[in-house]
Amino acid sequence: MRIADIQSHIDHELVSKERIEELINRTAEQVSRDYRGKNPIMLAVLKGAFNTLAALSQAVTIPVQIEFMSISSYPAGKTSVSEGDLDIRMDLDCDVRGRHILIVEDIIDSGYTLHWLVEHLKERGAASVEIFTLLDKTSRHEVEVDVKYPGFAIPDEFVVGFGLDYDEQYRNLDSIAVLRSEEYMDPTQEQDHQDQGEQS
Ligand code: IMP
Ligand code: MG
C-alpha cells in the first residue's frame, strides 16, 4: 500500500498545472466560439478523461451537455490492448442523431480507441464529431486520428496525473508526471494487470 505523499512517488514533472490551465482556457475560448448555439455534447471516455472534461466544461462560456462512456477491450491474441476489439461497457445517456459531439480525451497513444469511437458515433448519426486531447504520444500512432483541438505532444513515456492512472493510482495528481521506477510493478504482475483489458 502506497502511503507516502503523492509527490514523493514522482521522478519528474512533464506538464505543470499552470500549463494545463493555460491550454484548457485557450481551448475553451475556441470551443465556446465554434459551438455557440449548437448545444454540443462533451463526451469523455472513463476514467482517464474525467478531470480534463471537468476542467474544460467549466472553462467554456456556452451551455454543454456532459456525457460519459466506458469502453472495454479484449486483447486476446493481440500484441497490445489497443489492437483488441472494443466494446461498450457503459453507453452515453442520449440519442446522438443530429448532435454535435466533442470527445474530450486524456491521451492518444496508438489512436485505436478514438479512431473506433469517432466512426461509431458517426454511424449512430452524430452531426459532427471532433476531438480535444490533453496529451498526445504522436510517435506512437498506428491509425490516423484527426484532432481538432490538440494538447501537449509528449514523448513515449508512461505518464500519470490529471486523470491518468497507473494501477488506479495518481489520477488526483494536479499535473502530468513520470513516476519513479520503483513505483512500477514487476513484469509478471504487470501482465496480469493488462490482461484485464480495461480502458482507463
Ligand atoms: P489508444 O487507443 O492506444 O490511443 O489508447 C489510449 C488510452 O490508453 C488512454 O485513454 C489511456 O487510458 C491509456 N494510456 C495510454 N498511454 C498512457 C499513459 O502514459 N499513462 C496512462 N494511461 C495511458
Ligand atoms: Mg482514455
TrEMBL record:
<dbReference type="InterPro" id="IPR050408">
    <property type="entry name" value="HGPRT"/>
</dbReference>
<dbReference type="InterPro" id="IPR005904">
    <property type="entry name" value="Hxn_phspho_trans"/>
</dbReference>
<keyword id="KW-0660">Purine salvage</keyword>
<protein>
    <recommendedName>
        <fullName>Hypoxanthine phosphoribosyltransferase</fullName>
        <ecNumber>2.4.2.8</ecNumber>
    </recommendedName>
</protein>
<dbReference type="GO" id="GO:0032264">
    <property type="term" value="P:IMP salvage"/>
</dbReference>
<keyword id="KW-0479">Metal-binding</keyword>
<dbReference type="GO" id="GO:0046100">
    <property type="term" value="P:hypoxanthine metabolic process"/>
</dbReference>
<dbReference type="GO" id="GO:0006178">
    <property type="term" value="P:guanine salvage"/>
</dbReference>
<dbReference type="GO" id="GO:0000166">
    <property type="term" value="F:nucleotide binding"/>
</dbReference>
<dbReference type="GO" id="GO:0000287">
    <property type="term" value="F:magnesium ion binding"/>
</dbReference>
<keyword id="KW-0963">Cytoplasm</keyword>
<dbReference type="InterPro" id="IPR029057">
    <property type="entry name" value="PRTase-like"/>
</dbReference>
<dbReference type="GO" id="GO:0052657">
    <property type="term" value="F:guanine phosphoribosyltransferase activity"/>
</dbReference>
<keyword id="KW-0328">Glycosyltransferase</keyword>
<dbReference type="InterPro" id="IPR000836">
    <property type="entry name" value="PRTase_dom"/>
</dbReference>
<feature type="domain" description="Phosphoribosyltransferase">
    <location>
        <begin position="16"/>
        <end position="166"/>
    </location>
</feature>
<dbReference type="GO" id="GO:0006166">
    <property type="term" value="P:purine ribonucleoside salvage"/>
</dbReference>
<dbReference type="GO" id="GO:0004422">
    <property type="term" value="F:hypoxanthine phosphoribosyltransferase activity"/>
</dbReference>
<keyword id="KW-0460">Magnesium</keyword>
<dbReference type="GO" id="GO:0005829">
    <property type="term" value="C:cytosol"/>
</dbReference>
<comment type="similarity">
    <text>Belongs to the purine/pyrimidine phosphoribosyltransferase family.</text>
</comment>
<keyword id="KW-0547">Nucleotide-binding</keyword>
<dbReference type="Pfam" id="PF00156">
    <property type="entry name" value="Pribosyltran"/>
</dbReference>
<dbReference type="GO" id="GO:0032263">
    <property type="term" value="P:GMP salvage"/>
</dbReference>
<keyword id="KW-0808">Transferase</keyword>
<comment type="pathway">
    <text>Purine metabolism; GMP biosynthesis via salvage pathway; GMP from guanine: step 1/1.</text>
</comment>
<comment type="pathway">
    <text>Purine metabolism; IMP biosynthesis via salvage pathway; IMP from hypoxanthine: step 1/1.</text>
</comment>
